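Example 3.
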Amino acid sequence: MLELLITYAPKFFDGALMTLKLTFISVSIAALLSLPLAILRRSKNSALQLPIRLFVSFFRGTPLLAQLFLVYYGSGQFRLELTDLGLWWFFRDPLYCALFTFTLNSTAYQIEILRGALQAVSSGEIEAAVAIGMTRRLIYQKIILPHAYRIAFPALGNEVILMLKGGAIASVITLMDLMGRTRQAFSQTFDISVYFWAALFYLLITSAFVVAWRLLERRLTRHIDYHGVNNLPSTSSATMTGLNNAS
Amino acid sequence: MQWYEYLSYGSTGWGDELLSGLVITLSLAAVTLPLGLALGLAVAAASVSSSKAARWGALGFTTVIRGLPELLSLFLIYHGVGMLINNTLKWLNPEADFFELSPFVAGVIALGLVFAGYAAEVLRGAWQALDRGQSEAGLSIGMSKLQVFFHIERPQILRLALPGLGNLWINLIKDTALVSVIALSDLMRMANIAVGSTKKPFLFFLTVCLMYWVICIGCEFCIAKMERRANRGIRTL
Amino acid sequence: MNKHISALALSLLLSVIPFSGVNAAEKTIRIGTEGAYPPFNFFNADGKLAGFDVELAQALCDKMQTKCTFVAQDWDGIIPALLAGKYDVIVASMFITEKRKLKVDFSDPYQKSAMTFVIGKDSTLTDFSPEGMDGKIIGAQGSTTQGDFLNALYPNSDIRLYPTQDAVNLDLISGRIDAQVGDMIPMLDWTKKSTDGNCCTLAGEPITDPKYVGDGVGMALRQEDDELRLKLNEALAAVIADGTYKKINDKFFSVNILTLQ
């Protein structure tokens, strides 16, 4: 079993790097996109609201695998049109296709998380800010966003983990991530223990992330006293489940 | 050929194959749900039990399940458990016939474990949110523990856990697409086969996306109805 | 409690075992194939397995006067499932290679083997040596001899491995990959016969290095199943002699794939 690990360690390592790259790039871009969209999603203008709702619903209501196939192989069918538009170089690359799909998927989930968090910001604080004459921009900057992100923090961490796990399908479009390397090693050795090693690596990555995220959260909320903490959603393991990510 | 001819019934169209795939997808989800729920309930019970070993066991189970990609769990079950059973059979009787762990059964086990891992946390959260005073009140007016569970705790757990469980059900339906990778002829795999034969990836993958989407929207609608029903006794502000 | 469960499990296991004796008496042969490798094995629009491998296997079964059932299995797991006993023989146009012989035994060859580069018709590639393909993107199906060949000899090319041959073809059509390496006969068939394969053409010299293409295409069996292997060899010789092989061959191919003439 150890021999196997030593033989395949460099490949596993490459694969893990690819997994991390896919996850963090797409989640980060999605984080930038989701905030303005979440704010628009709360607008009363249905021309703004409806397309965002449809977008969110579609990406949360279909399997990531189907989305990836649609983007990757589907775009291949429109090579000429995409070339005319000057976009083919982007869709030609499987890495870009995966990043594109994962980013859109994660954006949809993050919009929902932020929407809920924005809603949960106490209206009293906003009214107080208005009463002392703060501008809208300042209210968002100083009151709403800090609160909303603190509320959303555990759920956002949860979303990173879901993306990390969901991204394990990337090898169906030839990207050799940790899962892809594992399948490759299995097809060469027919040795089931490669899957156990892969499971161990995934557990290490996810647990390390959970710990890091908790520490970060504690640091970000260190100025909040006990009573304030009580108003936050629990950071216990219950929030690291599907409970928040799709609610 | 027009796009609707590709999706038609019969020996040239792929509509009937897609529908047969859909049936597999839905039966996989439907078989998995009760098993996953029962296991999730057992794990949740273990996680609030007074036995330290049970609590650690439940914590270990939920941590591992939720830390592994669903696809990896599926491969582990499909290749690992199949091999394990066969080696055991061979060891007991070298003449033993092959025991087939079908992709369907492997899918049910793997998806059931995943569902249970998350459901246990949802149910535990609901259990912990219960007002202890109510069950004490029940006991003090002479109800048995079973009656307290059935008449006081069960309806409230159901109400509190319903949104979380609803999400898990929708995730389950989407996760069934992963079994196409272990050769179960579900909706996703049928689309892949159709694409291989027709070279129309956009049409077929868009079609299956829309099919999953319609199912998920339908489920969301039903869950919302169930939630309204479960909440009918609750005063809203 | 634990005791009860293990007792139950044991009795369940034991109850399975007697059936094996019954099965052995009138055994149908279970044939594993991939179902994503036209025209050798694929699913037709009826969702049934079809193709050269399937028809040939059926002819062999008729000759042996045994019943056969077909099982579809993804390429990645096709040897593990044979070893685990999911089916008794693989008829899936598998090359007879030294590496595979370590795990399975092969029947006599029933096709000649060679591999080839395939490129788009508008491609300007002419040099298919590792130097000539430096920096180019080459696709192939994963877990195949083509994949091994590329990984071993083309370290400076971008090698992409796909789950199925269909997927490689799709990406060659769309131009995502500069070239692919595939088995000679299906590539010949795809480029000459199908409408979508019209995009592409065979290129370069056929690749016949036995290190990679082996000694032809054979049916793979578990190493202990010598009896079945000999019976299949006998039946294969018989269907070649009586013209059945040629009939099936001509239904799918314009060349004789036993000789590649």
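The radius of gyration of chain A is 21 Å. The interface with chain C takes residues 73, 75-77, 79, 92, 94, 171-172, 174, 176, 183-184, 186-188, 190 of chain A (CB under 8 Å).
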